[in-house]
Amino acid sequence: MTDSASAFGIRALAAADHQALVALMMDMQAHYRVPCPPSQAILDGLANRPAGVEILIAERQGALLGFASACAIYPGPGLTSGFFLKELYVAAAARGCGIGRALMRALAELALARGHKRLDWTADAANPDLLRFYEGLGAIAQSEKVFYRLAGEALSGLARTES
Fold it and tell me: How far is residue 63's CA from residue 8's CA, in Å, rounded to a whole number?
């Protein structure tokens, strides 16, 4: 899939892209001001990612500009499968060129090609530009859902509890 107006392409991640994606993922972690594992740990994660994880990349002349990561979920709407977007990231220098929209369009195409009936994701409620971007795609915020997380000691503690 290529957008000729911007001269960038969207395609599935290949093993040869892993090193470039590591650099982009490290950039993403810095952008969000969150800890980042060592590059070798990221490479290992890419090489050993769970089955069903789809990663699309945006590139221009061999340079990685952005990526999207999604996976199948089941059950989804009507007890069919759905698709869940985990990450969408575009490098700062490439923002505003339609790359995020092109990645989302490619994910929508991929979801439909895989037979999924819905594409879901979470978004940072404190980022109005991001929310406008998603709404501009035709997405509708789902106010009836609440996002929860178990991590660290809470995850370990629950795993250790007896039924």
Answer: 9
